[in-house]
Fold this sequence. Notes:
The structure holds two protein chains of two kinds.
Chain A: E1 4-6, E2 9-12, E3 18-24, E4 36-40, E5 47-51, E6 55-56, E7 64-69, E8 72-77, E9 86-93, E10 100-102, E11 106-110
Parallel strand pairs in A: 2-11
Antiparallel strand pairs in A: 1-3, 3-8, 4-5, 4-9, 5-6, 7-8, 9-10, 9-11
Chain B: E1 3-7, E2 10-12, E3 18-25, E4 34-39, E5 45-51, E6 58-60, E7 68-73, E8 78-83, E9 92-98, E10 108-109, E11 113-117
Parallel strand pairs in B: 2-11
Antiparallel strand pairs in B: 1-3, 3-8, 4-5, 4-9, 5-6, 7-8, 9-10, 9-11
Amino acid sequence: QTVVTQEPSLTVSPGGTVTLTCASSTGAVTSAYYPSWFQQKPGQAPRALIYATSNKHSWTPARFSGSLLGDKAALTLSPVQPEDEADYYCLLYYDGPQPWVFGGGTKLTVL
Amino acid sequence: EVQLVESGGGLVQPGGSLRLSCAASGFTFSNYWMTWVRQAPGKGLEWVANIKQDGSFKSFADSVRGRFTISRDNANNALYLQMNSLRAEDSAVYYCAKAGSSYVECESWGQGTLVTVSS
Lengths: 111, 119
């Protein structure tokens, strides 16, 4: 069974920079996994931020960026704002019976 | 503006069935893949199933394959999830989501509907 792993929690100061990562149990994450990223605040539905590694939706703030970092997908926030405190999930594509798998999520605290 | 409104959630006994619906508006429904995602209380997101624009191709998570069915009615802009043989671990908020272009999954989301499986 495929497992997608994210940092369970991270803490960052307002105005700082933080990078969240997304790893696959199958090996290195490449652009062929079409990594996407989502933000979810308490009591709300998730919101899409990044698709296909580094592409932003029209509503995505400029301070969010996606990339590949080593053998993982990455989401970088800079500068971090207090309203960025939320859970963040990555989603990877696999060419198989279950084509999409979410990571376990990262709880980002802005303190 | 894209709008996705889920309905059909509720309390069901283990082994029972439930059918969720998602009413779509604000876009040409028949042009997009559609997906169901769920989230158990206090837990992370779990991709459940998706369906191609014309309904000709469907995929399922390992955890629901053989028990859940996904379907759509393009004439009425509606997405469905038929859930059979329900288990306690299927208890979750179920979200309907619209894809974007190719390999752009879950671009827009509904607010979700809660399913509780309990005796």
